[in-house]
Amino acid sequence: MSDLPLFDLCLRMGDTCLVLAQRTSEWIGHAPVLEEDIGLANIALDLVGQTQLWLGLAAEVEGKGRSADELAYRRDQGAYRNLLIAERPNGDFGHTLMRQYLFDAWHYPMLQGLTASSDSRVAEIAEKALKEVSYHIARSADLVISLGDGTPESHARMQAALNDLWPYTGEMLIVDEVDAALCEAGLAPDLEPVSAAWHAHVEATLTQATLAKPASGYMHKGGKRGLHSEHLGYILAEMQFLQRAYPTATW
Amino acid sequence: MNEWPLWEVFIRGQHGLSHRHVGSLHAPDAEKAIMAARDVYTRRNEGVSIWVVETRHIAASAPGDKGPLFDPSNSKAYRHPTFFDIPEEVGAM
Amino acid sequence: MYAQMVKTDANSVKTLDEMDANERAFQQRIDAGIKIEPKEWMPEGYRKTLIRQISQHAHSEIVGQLPEANWISRAPTLERKAILLAKVQDEAGHGLYLYCAAETLGVSRDELLEQLHSGKAKYSSIFNYPTLNWADVGMIGWLVDGAAIMNQVPLQRCSFGPYSRAMIRICKEESFHQRQGYDALVKMCRQGTPEQLEMAQDSINRWWWPALMMFGPSDADSVHSAQSMAWKIKINSNDELRQKFVDQTVPQAEYLGLKIPDPDLKWNEEKGGYDFGEIDWTEFYEVIKGNGPCNKERLAARVKAWDDGAWYREGLLAHARKKNAAKAAA
Description:
The structure holds 3 protein chains of 3 kinds.
Chain A: H1 5-25, H2 34-62, H3 68-74, H4 84-87, H5 93-114, H6 120-148, H7 152-165, H8 177-184, H9 191-208, H10 230-239, H11 241-245
Helix pairs in contact in A: 1-2, 1-8, 2-3, 2-6, 5-6, 5-7, 5-9, 6-9
Chain B: E1 6-12, E2 20-26, H1 30-41, E3 49-54, H2 66-70
Antiparallel strand pairs in B: 1-2, 1-3
Chain C: H1 21-31, H2 44-63, H3 65-69, H4 78-103, H5 109-117, H6 135-155, H7 161-189, H8 194-213, H9 223-230, H10 238-256, E1 266-268, E2 273-275, H11 281-291, H12 295-308, H13 310-329
Antiparallel strand pairs in C: 1-2
């Protein structure tokens, strides 16, 4: 934990958006249907936009003269604070959608909570992001339901995706010392009600999708404090290539 | 046939006008057609409301009937306000 | 120009006298600048040619996502990433509008995709070239979209209503594409490091000639071209558009400080345009035949996307049918 919990909050939100946008945009040009290429691009665009806002605020809070781009492109993986679920590989399209949904179901109530932040800049970003994420969750939930309740194959694929991703859902709901400090300062919401909202939404969606909720079991964590999977290194190596190879260039 | 049905998309622009046909797309059902229409046809802030209707439900006049359907209204010039001369003294009407 | 060498099935262009009554009435409406709408009578050749042309154009947009999408993950700033995402998304949108326009002629999108995937239908030669450095993204916006705009602006006035309307929508969006590309290059060439300028020069060296090939071989003597022009689904000759493109582009390259890789390029005072070197049409035909640097990867990527997505499309359709059945039963 840095001595600036607000900085950590901005990184956690911003880095998660960025890494998920990076993953999502891998699909562009390769989605199962043209309408989906376009829809996914909108999600990725929203997430990049939110990244700019969160990392912009992080840079401002840090006060060391770094920009949002410098934070995005010049930090190594250990300095990233994204949730592990964001860096999970895309898998099949159902896997990607399930990851998006499980994240959206957290992102939405989290942003709702953040609109009441004691820091008006945080509240403002949350307000703007919330509009976008309302659409994200409506879309991803609808698709999870439809595919869960589609053909036997689509059902099986969605169930497999859910089982696979489930151990990565705990991290966003479990309070660590940064979350506690943020809540204490009124900067971020208590994760308890966010968790309750997540569980309620997920249960309702899975029921409609005729998918079985996996038994609660071991949950991976670490992303929030910079302990990542091997995947993040590759994501960043690719993303940061130009900035690293041409450190004095502007683009 | 396993192709997603075709939908026609109508969008009400920012200015409170009627919904206007903007194009089509493929979607498995109405809900998803609306979401796709939002993604496809309002990327540049073009709309405030969306209608979708499955293309096969649209009944259209036959092109060959164009004469009988539309020509007769040509000869009814009195339906247009400019047909009537209002004395200048009366002012705007 | 995304549709190259579209065949018309015509052996010669008929005169009004040689036409039957339907054909004559049709041609006279076109001559009078009246738009043809989908359900109206049209010669079979017109319908078929349009399907070929519009779908070739649509396929080009769809395959055209790939070379640029190749750089989304590596875009050098968050803003460039967003711009590129939005741009590639537009290409998908353009493909979608165009497929819909083709569908009004009585062919389904799935059939058209099947033609693309089986290699029966063509797409523009340009998208079979690789994007090797970041300047290529700028170069595609500036040169490739620039060339496409040359062709598409006049097509807004083409005789077929749905095609013309799709073009109007596309042209509105396309100028963003060209400008973002040029803007990225201005940043690299005029405000950047020597290495960035070098990168851009390497890029134009590779893209210049393929961009000129986009207009297709000279069609001054082509029956297909004459027929398409009579039908007003082609407005200018290939050479005319190519000349216009070169004349417009050379000063833009000079502003960037980029050298156009053509030793024969020089201003011709007399014709008020540039003379330029001979295009390597052997290369063009090889690319069209499938021997370009990326033909196999591009098509394979599209086929894989389609095949891997089958369960998804079927899943959603199955759910929609269940929902409808439940609604009907209620």
